[in-house]
Design brief:
The protein is 42% helix and 18% strand. The chain is an alpha/beta fold. It is found in: Cytoplasm.
Length: 285
């Protein structure tokens, strides 16, 4: 590596040279601390022959380190100004490809399958734009793609919900659904002062690894049930679940069968208990 991009002076130099500024509507905040991007890249890249999919490379701060550790890096970028910038900032790397397309519109399964067929392990690594973190992650979660891990930076309060434990203020339907699909591990907390421009909030990096899917669970129904149980946070399981079933008496009976006190609230119900409730509900259908 000739010189890290993720420093204040280098970032200012690149932005000035290419007459580029951070676009608010793309949620752009450029990382200016090399130790942060290096840790994300090291955490993301496994030991096997690996291709990293990056979402929103910006001017290449994280991309640069991904190129150091991965055999190949494919970055998806929506901002038409940046391919020329990246051609300059990443000119020392021949293992980098830029795809000018909104990640939310790509055929993820086809992209992953292409590289799996070539013998690559596929990982996702990104400093995600805050405004679109959840749609991007759910696109990946809901795909059938064979992705080994997802290592991403996001707004800390969103990360707290993904990683939240039962009986905490951040625990909600997003926590349950994510932890049903994935093992979620914290990688690091990232203060707001390592970005340019500085955002209003701190960030955090999480890593997601997919669990084996349970073929007996109709996920769409399970996810709907979980969301319904958190619909009004201060209401009891009986009220929320009863509204979902449109039958309070049936809700009471199913909760009792699942050994869940009807007076409890959704935030006190563990993933394991939600799975039991789903099984009871399905068996009674």
């Amino acid at each position: 590596m000739i010189k890290p991009i993720a420093t204040p002076s280098r970032t200012k130099e690149i932005l000035a040279k290419h007459d580029v500024f951070a676009k608010k509507n793309y949620g752009q905040n450029f990382l200016i601390e090399p130790s942060v991007v290096e840790k994300i890249a090291r955490s993301a890249i496994g030991e096997k022959k690996c291709v990293a999919f990056e979402i929103g490379p910006g001017i290449g701060a994280l991309t640069q380190y991904l190129c150091e550790y991965a055999q190949k890096v494919v970055s998806f970028e929506i901002d038409e100004r940046l391919p020329e910038v990246l051609k300059d900032t990443l000119q020392e790397y021949d293992n980098f490809e830029i795809v000018l397309q909104d990640f939310l519109t790509i055929d993820l399964n086809a992209w992953v399958e292409k590289y799996r067929q070539e013998g690559y392990e596929v990982v996702v690594a990104a400093n995600l734009p805050y405004y679109i973190t959840t749609p991007i992650l759910f696109k990946i979660f809901e795909a059938e793609a064979n992705i080994s891990s997802i290592t991403v930076m996001m707004q800390k309060e969103v990360a707290d919900r993904f990683y939240a434990k039962v009986n905490t203020k951040d625990y909600n339907a997003l926590s349950v659904i994510t932890q049903y699909r994935c093992e979620v591990s914290p990688v690091m907390k990232v203060p707001k002062n390592v970005f340019m421009p500085k955002p209003n909030v701190d960030s955090a990096v999480l890593q997601f690894r997919f669990k084996q899917r349970n073929e007996n669970i109709e996920e769409e129904v399970f996810f709907e049930m979980v969301k319904a149980c958190f619909k009004q946070r201060r209401k009891t399981m009986l009220n929320n679940f009863g509204e979902y079933l449109q039958d309070k008496a049936k809700a009471m009976a199913l909760l009792e069968q699942a050994n869940i006190d009807p007076k409890r609230r959704g935030e006190s119900v563990s993933l394991a208990e939600f799975l039991v409730l789903y099984e009871v509900m399905r068996n009674e259908a």
